[in-house]
Specification:
The chain has eight helices and twelve strands. It has 274 residues and is of the alpha+beta class.
Length: 274
């Protein structure tokens, strides 16, 4: 079943290569179809446009391969340059929420920004990169990559709905995945407190949720606070660090979404001052 959301985009288009920008506010129907459907909408060798949600920048690509997701390449050197600017001038495995635009389709998707493997186009891009859609999988697993899933939900305008219904363990996984992807908007949705993530995230070179103790989620439906034992490995310029302790979660009623006590976790790891 096609899942749809109406998202209001403020798109800025460069006019004729000039620096003047025209601002247009347009409502588009962004859909979140399953990968099996998308596979037929944008088959191999299809050319389409990628729109980055956060920057509003767009570039053209061509699908060249991929069976569980789309392996694509920027169409021209200009498109490669735009894509690299989206990633701050440095190629990265970081996932980003995007809209794939093809004919009358606006499809929620997720991309990473790391050239790898083979490439066939003359575009100054050394290989290809991957675009995932709802239901896509990686080369090594039979399930959706959580980081791609969160970006797809973000692009579709369905992230709040997902987090509102998520059990506390799914919220924890989403939280650390968003920190790993350095996605401030997603982390902020889950955090109980307002935190200056723009200052903290650059210090975290890598973070990994190594252990998480479970209770059956069905036993927690009426709880409004929870302490979850976890092990978290994280790295910064001083080296590797290990946090072994409790992560605090709260919600204001059994019907509300779970929030994570970020301040406690960050203070325990000396990432903010107490």
């Amino acid at each position: 079943m096609r899942k749809a959301a109406v998202i209001l985009f403020i798109l800025f288009f460069l006019l004729g290569g000039q620096k003047t920008k025209a601002e247009a506010a347009i409502s588009y129907k962004v859909t979140m179809p399953d990968w099996k459907e998308v596979n037929h909408i944008v088959p191999k060798y299809t050319k389409f446009t990628v729109l980055d949600i956060e920057t509003g920048k767009k570039f053209k690509v061509q699908r060249r391969a991929g069976s569980n997701h789309a392996d694509v390449q920027p169409l021209t050197a200009k498109d490669t340059s735009i894509m690299k600017k989206i990633y701050g001038g440095k190629w990265s495995w970081k996932r980003r929420a995007i809209i794939v635009i093809h004919k009358d389709h606006w499809i929620a998707a997720s991309m990473h920004g790391m050239p790898h493997g083979a490439g066939a186009l003359q575009n100054n891009f050394p290989g290809h990169f991957c675009i995932h859609f709802y239901g896509s999988t990686t080369h090594r697993t039979n399930s959706m990559d959580l980081s791609h899933k969160l970006m797809i939900l973000k692009a579709a305008g369905k992230l709040n709905e997902y987090l509102a219904k998520a059990n506390p363990y799914d919220v924890i996984y989403a939280y650390f995945t968003a920190i790993k992807q350095q996605d401030e908007p997603i982390v902020s949705k889950i955090s109980l407190q307002k935190v200056n993530w723009k200052k903290i995230m650059p210090e975290l070179e890598y973070i990994n949720l190594a252990r998480l103790e479970y209770l059956p989620p069905e036993d927690l439906t009426q709880e409004i606070s929870l302490d979850v034992p976890i092990d978290v490995e994280w790295f910064n310029k001083t080296g590797k660090h290990l946090f072994r302790g409790d992560l605090h979660l709260v919600r204001f009623s059994p019907q509300d979404a779970w929030k994570i006590d970020s301040l406690h976790f960050l203070q325990e790891n000396y990432l903010v001052q107490q």
